[in-house]
């Protein structure tokens, strides 16, 4: 049996080897026939892919007819130890380089939404980046080989890991139009909860086929011809390869940086979509391993930020929007961040049998309301609540950063709205009906100063809407918290009901019918709309109960981001949402979700426009008639110039996109960046000045 399998293994090796030789010879021929110009040769192969593939197969078949001669040649080579060793090294290098080329190509194909032609076009335009990527991956392939000692096993494991990484990147781009970042892997421990969310969008048939192929290849590994390297050579080369990999991975602080600069290869940190598109998946992904989530501003030092803070302290004053409506006692404050809540009637060319959010629409007409300019699309909820709880803008951080996971625990506790309210005698509670360790919330909330955190394990009301806790239960839990505490209470609640995915099978009989869409997308939108309708009812139930409460209470309600509707924004594209808009206008449209501020005491209705969540702390403190510290007073000043702030778009106080900043706006943004850096990533020189009012 063993001998038979070894013959099979040898046969496979000969077939693959001859096909590779055929491919190599024909590629060289095409290159020569196009005057040794690479791009025309590649273009010809792209146009005649099937014909070229057939020629490779025919060439490989013809070469197999010469196997007897090849065997005799092999015997001759084996008689010369030096020649045999050289051939083995050459074959080993070719195999490892081929696996590196394959993985890098798969990476780029994933970046191009699995369009091989686009990947080839990118490679033609960016040969240096691609070849450097191949060299980097070759080092990884070598490390696999030096560790495992079997080239076939190493290639299988290396290409499997690379393909899996590419597949994850492809799906994240497909779902959220956002690249894969190293920080995303901090959520690997929660795959049990994540997989059900995306299961309906994965091709389990393809995944199974790949796994079966891997198992078959692993089974054949012991029977393939051996290509060995002495153990001591591998042992010596492991640290050398590891050092080179480290130098390439963390290039910003190693000798590799100069080489990349000479080749004009540079990360685009301020726009990650551009970074991945320009530099390709591999370099862009590695560039996000450099750390530096918040680059230190050029003028950051103690005297600079202290001077700014002292000036703000002098200018700060207690203020309310309308002193006549200030409540007699400290009001309860409720943050209600509704998962993926958005107004679906904003979709053009779609009609609805009924309004899915009549109660919220009525509340928005009666109370201060508008939209938020979310820093995220389709996910990244933690970054939205980060802005709303801290007043710190994601616009100053490197794209892809998740402060909850990468920054909060590296600093002493950062001052937040939570700690501010704690100092005012509030009882503070966070509520999220999901796993408490998602985004490290259990640790982050503690550092923010919350007195309590109610997660899915602790909730009293457990009515579900599909697989997620219903918004109705959220409303009941909020009311319970208010009734359980006599002191003024702050409740930060994050819902789950309308979380992705929307596959059309969550609700048996949606109340609202949708028309104007394809058969494929209609059930998707109807399921989402039914969730919005239920959120609307739950919100009205909360308001009705708060109207009967004898404690003044403010509710800040908003949707954290737009929903994922179809692969690669398929439903949005089908309805021509944002079609014909500029890049900045499109970004705003994909960032706007409804928000309003309800109060069970008199409060002036106002159009808040499209506002960033960073301004929520200063707004709610002012509406509540509470003391406004210098930092929140400064945020109000920034708010007077900017209604919305994102890394790539700014809205003025009239909700128009700013194309040219005034001197005052530049100064405010520079001060904002400096202060945020000091508090979030720096030495916190200004904390006592900006929050406690102490000189």
TrEMBL record:
It is found in: Cell membrane. Residues 331-625 form the Sulfatase N-terminal domain. The chain crosses the membrane at residues 12-31, 51-69, 89-110, 130-147, 152-170, 198-224, 231-247. It comes from the Bacteria. Pfam families: Sulfatase. It is a multi-pass membrane protein. Its main location: membrane. SUPFAM superfamilies: Alkaline phosphatase-like (SSF53649). Keywords: Cell membrane, Membrane, Transmembrane, Transmembrane helix. Pathway: Cell wall biogenesis; lipoteichoic acid biosynthesis. PANTHER family: LIPOTEICHOIC ACID SYNTHASE (PTHR47371), PHOSPHOGLYCEROL TRANSFERASE I (PTHR47371:SF3). This is LTA synthase family protein. It comes from Halobacillus salinarum. The lineage of its organism: Bacteria, Bacillati, Bacillota, Bacilli, Bacillales.
């Amino acid at each position: 049996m063993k001998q038979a399998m070894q013959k099979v293994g040898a046969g496979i090796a000969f077939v693959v080897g001859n096909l590779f030789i055929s491919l190599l010879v024909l590629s060289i021929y095409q290159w020569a026939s196009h005057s040794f110009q690479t791009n025309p040769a590649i273009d010809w192969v792209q146009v005649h892919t099937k014909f070229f593939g057939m020629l490779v197969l025919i060439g490989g078949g013809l070469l197999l007819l010469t196997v007897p001669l090849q065997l005799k040649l092999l015997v001759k080579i084996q008689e010369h130890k030096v020649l045999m060793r050289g051939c083995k090294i050459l074959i080993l290098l070719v195999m490892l380089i081929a696996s590196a080329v394959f993985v890098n190509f798969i990476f780029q194909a994933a970046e191009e939404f699995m369009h091989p032609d686009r990947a080839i076009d990118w490679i033609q335009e960016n040969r240096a980046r691609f070849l450097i990527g191949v060299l980097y991956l070759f080092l990884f392939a070598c490390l696999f080989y030096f560790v495992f000692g079997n080239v076939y096993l190493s290639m299988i494991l290396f290409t499997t890991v690379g393909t899996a990484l590419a597949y994850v990147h492809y799906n994240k781009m497909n779902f959220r139009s956002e690249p894969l970042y190293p920080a995303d892997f901090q959520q690997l421990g929660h795959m049990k909860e994540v997989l059900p969310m995306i299961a309906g969008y994965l091709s389990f048939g393809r995944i199974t086929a790949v796994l079966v192929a891997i198992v078959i290849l692993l089974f054949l590994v012991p029977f393939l011809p051996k290509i060995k390297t002495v153990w001591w050579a591998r042992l010596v080369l492991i640290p050398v390869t590891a050092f080179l990999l480290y130098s390439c991975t963390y290039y910003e602080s190693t000798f590799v940086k100069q080489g990349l600069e000479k080749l004009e290869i540079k990360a685009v940190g301020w726009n990650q979509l551009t970074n991945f598109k320009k530099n390709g998946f591999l370099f862009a992904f590695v560039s996000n391993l450099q750390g530096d989530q918040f680059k230190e501003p050029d003028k950051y030092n103690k005297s600079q930020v202290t001077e700014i803070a002292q000036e703000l302290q002098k200018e700060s004053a207690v203020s309310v929007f309308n002193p006549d409506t200030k409540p007699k006692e400290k009001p309860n404050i409720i943050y209600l961040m509704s998962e993926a809540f958005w107004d679906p009637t904003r979709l053009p060319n779609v009609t609805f049998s009924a309004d899915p959010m009549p109660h919220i629409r009525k509340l928005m007409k009666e109370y201060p309301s508008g939209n938020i300019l979310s820093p995220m699309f389709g996910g990244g909820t933690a970054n939205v609540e980060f802005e709303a709880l801290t007043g710190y803008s994601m616009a100053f951080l490197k794209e892809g950063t998740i402060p909850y996971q990468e920054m909060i625990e590296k600093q002493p506790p950062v001052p937040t709205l939570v700690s501010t309210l704690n100092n005012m005698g509030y009882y503070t509670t966070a509520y999220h009906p999901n796993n408490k360790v998602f985004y490290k919330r259990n640790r982050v909330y503690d550092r923010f100063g919350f007195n309590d955190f109610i997660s899915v394990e602790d909730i009293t009301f457990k009515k579900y809407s599909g697989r997620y806790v219903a918004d109705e239960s959220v409303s009941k839990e909020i009311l319970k918290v208010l009734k359980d505490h006599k002191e003024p209470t702050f409740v930060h609640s994050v819902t789950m009901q309308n979380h992705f995915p929307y596959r059309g099978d969550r609700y048996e009989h949606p109340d609202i019918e949708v028309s104007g869409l394809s058969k494929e997308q209609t059930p998707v939108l109807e399921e989402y709309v039914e969730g919005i309708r239920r959120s609307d009812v739950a919100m009205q139930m909360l308001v009705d109960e708060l109207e009967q409460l004898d404690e003044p209470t403010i509710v800040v309600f908003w949707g954290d981001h737009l929903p994922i509707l179809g692969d690669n924004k398929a439903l949005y594209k089908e309805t021509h949402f944002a079609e014909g808009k500029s890049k900045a206008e499109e970004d705003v449209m994909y960032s706007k979700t409804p928000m309003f501020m309800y109060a069970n005491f008199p409060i002036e209705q106002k159009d808040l426009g499209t506002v960033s969540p960073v301004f929520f702390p200063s707004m709610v403190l002012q509406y509540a008639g509470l003391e406004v510290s210098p930092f929140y007073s400064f945020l109000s000043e920034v708010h007077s110039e900017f209604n919305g702030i994102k890394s790539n778009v700014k809205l003025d106080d009239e909700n128009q996109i700013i194309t040219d900043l005034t001197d005052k706006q530049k100064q405010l943004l520079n001060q904002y960046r400096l202060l945020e850096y000091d508090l979030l990533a720096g030495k916190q020189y200004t904390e006592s000045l900006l929050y406690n009012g102490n000189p």
